[in-house]
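Possible regression after last week's pipeline update?

I re-ran a chain I had predicted before the update to compare outputs. Posting the input and the new output here so someone can diff against the archived version. Not blocking, just want to make sure nothing changed silently.
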Amino acid sequence: MAQNKDFTDKENVDVAMLEYKEGIKVGSGLTINDDKTYIGTVSQIYDNVHGNEEQVYVLTNKESGLTETEIKDSNGSLRAAVPYSASDAERAQVQDVTVMMQGSQTKTHTPKLLHDTVTDWLPTDFVMAAHRLGPVGAVEHATPFVYRHSQNIITQKSREVLDKADRDASNNIGDAVGFFNKDVGQAVTRGLNSLNKNPFNELRKDVLSNSAGIFGGAVVTGVTSTPIMLAAGGLKLTQKFPPAQFEDAAKHLKETIRKYPNAKIDLYGHSLGSMDIQYALASLTEEEMRHIGTVHIYNGPNIYPLLTKEQKARLDSAKYKIFNHIDHKDIVSLGYSLSGSENAAGIVRHIKTIGKSIDDQHMMKGYIYDKNKNFVLMDETGKITIQDTIKANMIPYQNMKKYLSKGGFSGNEKIYLDSVQAQATAQNLVNVAKLGYETLQQARDQVVGEAEILADELHKVPWGFSLSPDEVVAAYQAGGADYQSLVLSLQEHFDSRLSKVQALQTTFTDLIEQLNAGIQQLLDKDQVLAGDFEQWNQVKQ
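New output (post-update):
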């Protein structure tokens, strides 16, 4: 959807998760934010077209760019599907398309789902991992996750066994007493169950179950290492790259571009869907790439090193459009550096996360958001990320310079390139100021929050002291520690800095407006130049 640049990170994640919604069919209208935000209507579904079990959903949105009044007056007619079977004229009117590529299936309770799951994992996911990591790398990557997963399962099962043993003992004693008096028997059972929950017994079961988990995790890891290595080696030798599903994904995206020739196409993909999108984008022509709006991919392996030189160059040409979100605690998000976006598709955003179960981690439930529902990034990644963003933002200028350089530069071409470079530079200044503001704001929230916790302690009487709470507060104040010095002074310090950064952001935004106004004045005076600008802007997109 064309409006996704204005979405929060959480909203973009919610859009990506729509690809897992059950019961999707042509004509389904998909929304987020409790149905308040319309994304689009499903107009085409690719599902296992050639037996490779891809699931690709194409959504059209005819509301894009219209006013609220125009949308309301349409009485919902704008949300009708515009399928491939619609006329050329109808499809040409669509300007906003969202393509979602689904991740790997894990369900097996129907023949269709079983085939989907097997095809996603064996000839696709495992093949990519074997090629990307190699046999030794596959073992090294998988081992800590195998250990953690098996340890958690064995610990949980051991605890369940211990809890059940306690319950069974209580129930047996209660049943014996209940033989003579049912009410007394039930009371005895409840009493024994309550006693079993004492801290010492709970600690005993914790120690026993954790010990079993640690031992079992180590055993399972040792047993699985050799099969993982053999499997990875076999797949690398026998299965080619790219997998067939990647090639089908590329064909589907190309067809979508042809069917909606005037649309900007935004893409969303998670896990295997991320890989499908990376490969599909790398397979586009220069002209086809101009139809791509923004791309949001999540927790997918890095396939960039496996691509050809030409495919890498195509991805690099659109680096500023692709936002590649990575959770380093996720077993599937493999093949990335710990910071930066080098040797990867798009701008890599290294998200700070909390540890979850393997499934929840992969399904993006470990992501940490700030109060504005945007991602909190890992420490030491922001600085490098803004450098990558600056480089990526200059790519359209570099592409146009290369495009116009054939036969030398005319006067109008030089004016155009100067304007594009000036606009890109000004936008980079805005981006740097924006990132600085967000980083400083996160630091403020963290530091002030810690200071508020410390300030709360000023009202507590330390153990062993006979002072009243008011006397304790007075003593701390005498030592220079009070709410003003601990919290308010920090707030004032950060707020002053934030105001300065915000003023810079406003200044740079005003600069962009001044540049655009100056360019427009120039175009108003020269209709030939205006025509050239319009033509070249179409090429630049």
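Follow-up from reviewer: compared with the archived run. The chain has three domains: 2-108+242-393, 129-238, 402-540. Marking as no regression found.
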